[in-house]
Write a structure and sequence with these properties.
Elements (H helix, E strand, L loop, with lengths): L10 E4 L11 H15 L3 E4 L10 E3 L2 E7 L2 E6 L9 E6 L11 E6 L5 H4 L7 E4 L11 E3 L19 E5 L10 H7 L2 E2 L8 H9 L2 E6 L5 H8 L3 E4 L4 H4 L9 H4 L4 H7 L7 E3 L4 H7 L3 H27 L4
Parallel strand pairs: 1-2, 1-6, 2-3, 6-7, 7-8, 8-9, 10-11, 10-12, 12-13, 13-14
Antiparallel strand pairs: 4-5
Length: 320
């Protein structure tokens, strides 16, 4: 494939190889949403699988899965050439090296980096952070957030009585973390993706008053809030002791943020979310703010895409 130069257009090559049918994860959703957001702003976008949000400015470079080891997937793709100075690659933080060999590289930090992978980044790669995820290098982080809030799929339908607890087993669940779910009689919704996806998730979330999770930066708290369900973050600290876990001597316990610190660092979880059991009154008082608040965040996200594109326009055309 030949990527040709078009006057006034930049070329963005996104390292996304997976459609939703193969992996419906937050990172995959974000990459597909970003592809569409850039295309909507008039620039050319190239990805390696059919786009989930099609646009005439999005083109597909054919690719194949070569091998898979656990969560690691390796791909090969059809060779392509591109204008060196007007082509920018966008890699999620898990991508090693610069496989597309572009001059300009964006590292999109969708989660905390791994040191051995980040050691392979180039010195002049530009970091864009999806939130406040951590990296090992002391490097400037620019903001880039493209969230699919699923306003059309997730919303409150139950304005009456609800059952008590539900949960989804996700990141950061400790070895004995399932004990609290069992003690509370919480319903496991982990298999929601294969049981009706978002329609099922909306239906089940609307049955419950509380959603439990150990993940402090989860899409699921957002989904719960839109459905009128209060989330409880089971953070490493006093809340763990509720499940009979003694972490009081650990570094995790000593470094626990206060609820206010947590909300300042995780703006998407500002309302309808309790940071530990002791914070439950906040979730109850603010749960009804969630839909309008997230709509305002959506506007802020769009501004971050505008700034991302402006950065590269300035960089490519010599204004930086």
């Amino acid at each position: 494939m030949i990527i040709e130069q078009q006057e006034g257009k930049l070329n963005f090559v996104l390292g996304v190889f997976t459609p939703f049918a193969k992996a419906l994860t937050g990172g995959i959703v974000a990459m597909h949403k970003l592809a569409n957001a850039i295309a909507n702003r008039g620039h050319n976008v190239y990805i390696f699988c059919p786009p989930e949000f099609p646009h005439e400015n999005i083109k597909v470079i054919p690719s194949n899965l070569t091998n898979e080891e656990g969560f690691v997937q390796n791909y090969s793709w059809e060779g392509f050439s591109f204008p060196l100075h007007t082509t920018i690659s966008i890699y999620p933080q898990i991508t090693r090296g610069n496989p597309f060999n572009t001059l300009h590289v964006s590292r999109w930090i969708l989660y905390d980096t791994e040191k051995d992978i980040e050691d392979g980044y180039r010195e002049n790669d530009v970091y864009f952070n999806y939130g406040n995820f951590k990296t090992f290098r002391k490097q400037e982080h620019r903001e880039l957030t493209v969230f699919n809030y699923y306003f059309d799929k997730l919303y409150k339908t139950n304005f009456g009585d609800r059952k008590t607890f539900c949960h989804i087993i996700h990141k950061h669940t400790p070895p004995n973390g399932l004990e609290i779910f069992e003690k509370l009689g919480s319903e496991d919704l982990t298999s929601w993706k294969t049981r009706g996806a978002y329609d099922y998730l909306r239906q089940k979330m609307n049955e419950y008053k509380y959603f439990l999770t150990y993940d402090q930066k989860s899409f699921y708290t957002l989904a719960a809030g839109l459905c009128g369900t209060q989330s409880i973050i089971l953070n490493p600290g006093p809340s763990y002791e509720f499940a009979g876990n003694a972490f009081s001597d650990s570094e995790d316990y000593k470094n626990v943020m206060t609820p206010t610190e947590y909300r300042l660092q995780n703006r998407i979880q500002a309302f309808g979310v309790a940071y530990g059991w002791e914070d439950l009154s906040w979730a109850e008082k603010t749960i009804n703010f969630v839909p309008d608040y997230l709509k305002e965040l959506d506007k802020i996200d769009n501004k971050s895409v505008d700034k991302f594109i402006k950065y590269w326009e300035n960089k490519v055309y010599g204004k930086l």
